[in-house]
Amino acid sequence: MDDPRPEVACVGAVVHDERGRLLLIRRSHAPSAGLWSVPGGRVEPGESEADAVVRETAEETGLAVRPVRVLGHVRIDGDGVVFTVTDWLCTVVEPERQPVAGDDADDAVFVDAAGLTALEMAPGVLTALSGWGVLPR
């Protein structure tokens, strides 16, 4: 049976720095408020997914990114809706810049594999990243 809930198109940015660390934000709003995830959010009307991933990453981390390719898709249950997220592999335009939390993020950091284990991640994030082979080093 098809899900009757409306779908909300979203994007996520999978970004590594020169050391192989992964860019993460701590979400300040639902879904998964207080948990860690990749930067991202809703695609605005008339906006391409690539433009949305650039905008959302800049809003949440202050970093400019360049979308490279789509990694995959995930579905996240929301309050009366389903968020359909297209996750993009992206590169940082200015690698010397550090992330700064903004907009819908309480914090923004690059983490290595050891640092990742200490964070409380949003549901499904680690499974998706692992399946796509893009976990941090």
UniProtKB/TrEMBL annotation:
Pfam (any one): NUDIX
Domain Nudix hydrolase: 6-137
Keywords assigned: Hydrolase
GO MF annotations, alphabetized: hydrolase activity
Coiled-coil regions, chain positions: none
Family: Belongs to the Nudix hydrolase family.
Official protein name in the record: NUDIX hydrolase
Origin species: Modestobacter caceresii
Higher taxonomy: Bacteria, Bacillati, Actinomycetota, Actinomycetes, Geodermatophilales
